[in-house]
Amino acid sequence: MKGRRIYIHAYSFRELCLSSAEARVEVLECLVAVSIRKMMHNRIVQDGSSLGLLSAQQAHIAAGLVDRMEMCSVSSTLSKIGLAGRKASSALHAAPLLQLGETVEASCFDDNYYTFATDRSAAEAMYRDQEPIATLRQRKLRAPSDPSVSDLTLIKGKALLWRPDLGKPGEASAEFRNKQGARESDLMASAADMAIEKGQRSLETLFDDLTTTCGPNALFTSVAAGMKKTLPLSIDPVRNS
User: Fold this and answer.
1) How many domains does the chain have?
2) Closest Cα to residue 109, out of 79, 80, 129?
3) pLDDT digit string (tens) for 80-131?
4) Phi (first) and psi of residue 21, to 5 degrees
5) 120 domain residue, yes or no
6) Segment among 52-56, 171-175, 197-201 with least mean pLDDT
7) Residue 108, Cβ density class (10 Å: 0-12 exposed, 13-18 middle, ≥19 buried)
8) Gap between the Cα atoms of 162 and 94, Å rounded
9) 72 within some domain
10) First to last CA, the chain
11) Which pLDDT band holds residue 167 (cuts at 50, 70, 90)?
12) Residue 171 pLDDT more than 80?
């Protein structure tokens, strides 16, 4: 199976989060993990190597730890998401976002899109992308078979449906939420706090592993302190969309 790039706008994730309490918790935890992975790759792997703060062996070890980080949980979360077609009216009729046998190999965030790749080749293409996503979208519309975008799935708007256990409906629909009169900010706040708390624990574990395998390093201490402060901002694109 050929790998794919899947780019999902923050607004689409926001609407998905508001549709189900179960989705809210799991999706936000997933997106925090994506943000952690991007920050770790940029600040530890890339900066550590380019600035000479890590040896080649340490950079290789760090890259391995970061590459493995949370990809299983990201794949698990995305496998519970359906992609609504024009005729799809419920999660039971949504096409799966991930096809059978697909897993997420890499992730990133750019231009208000969370980006995912399902194999190494797609990941390399994802990291090479320099054009605005709006440009990629126009090219995809004009020439979907163009090799530069043929593997690309772009998602924006109210296009995602929560489909845990292969299509069983989630805990609460958007209609139910509105009938209860719950404020969207209140619905998001508690789940966001839980996701960030879990992310902080993941960070502590990751830096413990880095220190154990690579030895103490001032870079680890500095980046850990900075990420602890900025992690609460990592899901603002979803909350503010």
Assistant:
1) 1
2) 129
3) 999 886 554 455 567 889 988 899 988 999 999 999 999 999 999 999 988 9
4) -65, -40
5) yes
6) 171-175
7) buried
8) 9
9) yes
10) 34
11) very low
12) no
CB atoms within 10 A of CB 138: 13
Q: How much is the pTM? A: 0.85
Contact 65, 210 (CB under 8 A): yes
Nearest to 55 by CA among 65, 64, 45: 45
Distance set, CA 178 to CA 19, 20, 47, 183 (Å): 10, 12, 46, 8
Q: How far apart are CA 75 and CA 6, in angstroms?
A: 12
The answer to whether 194 and 25 have CB atoms below 8 angstroms apart is yes
Q: What is the pLDDT of residues 121-158, one digit of tens each?
A: 999 999 998 899 999 999 999 999 999 999 999 999 99
CA 157 to chain CA mean position, Å: 17
Question: Do you know the residue count of the chain?
Answer: 241
Domain of residue 41: give its range.
Answer: 5-166+177-232
Q: Is 197 left (phi over 0), alpha (psi -120 to 50) or beta?
A: alpha
